[in-house]
Amino acid sequence: LKKIGVLVSGGGSNFQRLIDEIHKVYGEIVVVVSNNADAHGLTRGKTAGIPAVFLDPKKSTGSEDYNQKLLELLNSYGVELVVLAGYMKLITPNLIDAFPNAMVNIHPALIPSFCGEGFYGMHVHNAVIDYGVKVTGATVHFVTEVADGGPIIAQEAVKVADDDTPESIQIKVLAVEHQLLPAVIKAICLDEFEVHGRIVKKRLK
Ligand code: GAR
Known about the structure:
The protein is an alpha/beta fold. 34% of the residues lie in helices and 25% in strands. The protein has helices at 13-21, 40-47, 63-76, 93-96, 122-131, 166-189, and strands at residues 2-8, 27-34, 52-54, 81-84, 103-107, 135-142, 152-159, 193-196, 199-202. The strands form two sheets. A seven-stranded mixed β-sheet has the order 3-2-1-4-5-6-7, with helices on one face. The radius of gyration is 16 Å and the shape is globular. Pathway: Purine metabolism; IMP biosynthesis via de novo pathway; N(2)-formyl-N(1)-(5-phospho-D-ribosyl)glycinamide from N(1)-(5-phospho-D-ribosyl)glycinamide (10-formyl THF route): step 1/1. One of its GO terms (molecular function) is phosphoribosylglycinamide formyltransferase activity. Its EC number is 2.1.2.2.
């Protein structure tokens, strides 16, 4: 089984879906790491018997140093695939370069809309409602040095209704994420994708 490391900053509902659908079936989640001591995701890991580590940003001299410590931690568990499941901290090249096409992020909008610096979590859904778009959604993509700019693996749309609020859209998008992320991670574990530059396709069988 592919060894998976998951990074979380908050509730970890996407991580829970990976525990339920992927863990010990298609891959093994060997560690969950958070930059936030109070992240409920850490509790979800412990409950599932997965090593859960709080890596304190205050004990690092800066982003690069933090990401270096993160890299060493992931390597110590033999991680082969990194999943950012609601991870809100900057990833720097020293970590990204160690996992080429092996680090996946889920973003709560249809990239390349509402993404990049400043667009995370609830900020995204606020911006979607303020802009008045009629469609939003979720994107799963490989992580490169361009924030939210790596090759897109899968997307799913969500319609924005006239009476939607940022909160109601968040709920609708999360429901889509909960299907999309496990499906993508399963396919990666089964080696079903090929990547050509920024184009990701399912392999012909
Ligand atoms: C999810 O909506 C995810 O797409 C988003 O944070 C939420 C985490 O929920 N991620 C980002 O905004 C990353 N830029 P969860 O902790 O319940 O999985």
